[in-house]
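Extended Data, panel c. Modelled sequence:
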Amino acid sequence: MNAPPPTSAPRWLYLHGFASGPASAKGVWLDAHWAKQGIPLQRLNLRVPSLEHLGLHAMLDTVRDALGGPQDRAVLIGSSLGGLVAARTAEQDARVGALVLLAPAFRFVEQLQRRMGPTAWADWKRTGFLETDDHAEKRRARVHHGIVEEAQAMDAKRGVWPDVRVPTLIVHGRKDDTCDVRYSREWAQGKRHVRLVEVDDGHELTASLERIAQEADAFLTPWRGGADPRQVFTAD
């Protein structure tokens, strides 16, 4: 006999980006927005096990733990690297019912290489650490090269594009110089279950918060009650 569908509303989880944290501006803003509607947004801490030794598998484990029990369902809202983690979670965990991805870091390694250039990229591998801005703690920090090695191994095993079959909303800025919008365009192309919204904004999307909320509110309407969202949407 099949297990009964869940009767409680799905969890809404927010996944912040690289060198950010659960108190990121977008996460806090969306938390306040949905709190007014009686929807709790759990802002996860993906600085695991630490920013210095940031690990992709540790992030995925953190998200899976937050999804709840076998009969629970969740909506994942992921920003930048958090968007990639959300997509990688959704491709393997049936508890994820829908995604909202904000400037997702698809093809993470490729985009990092493009931004850093060959010299800085080689130096990161040689020294083992990259110096970067810690946006959460407002200081300089360093990140171990291991996250690149994890991402490369995952891409080799699963493919460079996450195989997501659940309804997905992407909001991406055309002026984004961190995660190029063309990657979102390529990933979304031909997928009937994916809606891509392009805005006239940069990577932080700070000028587009109202538009993000408007699009997400409409897109996530089926996930506001206790129905099994898989009975509302189907993916190709």
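The longest helix spans residues 108-127. This feature is highlighted in the accompanying rendering.
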